[in-house]
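pinging the channel bc i need a second pair of eyes. not urgent but kinda urgent?? the chain im working w is below, pasted from the shared doc
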Amino acid sequence: MARPTLKSFKAEALKRKAVKEEYLELAPAYEVRRKLIALRQEAGLTQEQLAELLHTNKSNISRLESVGSTISPKLSTLADYAQAIGYKIKIDFVPIQSGT
């Protein structure tokens, strides 16, 4: 018997209402962290280099980018991070769609 792929496992798990609700609730935090990592890498910076630019420790950058972190970054921290890699933050609000 073949092992399930991550894609098939995710699809099966998301059929459960409680799992889907939790997944949707956590999605924005995961998206922000994935974006931070991608932009830092596009800028050609390591966590150590970015930490130096921000006058902080590498562990703080690692924690900020970690999807497992229980700490929510302050908006000012995200703005400083963005500026250090040549970006600015744009916040958008979208309506909640019923049925999701």
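so The chain has a mean pLDDT of 90. and The first helix runs from residue 6 to 13. — does that match what u expected or am i reading it wrong
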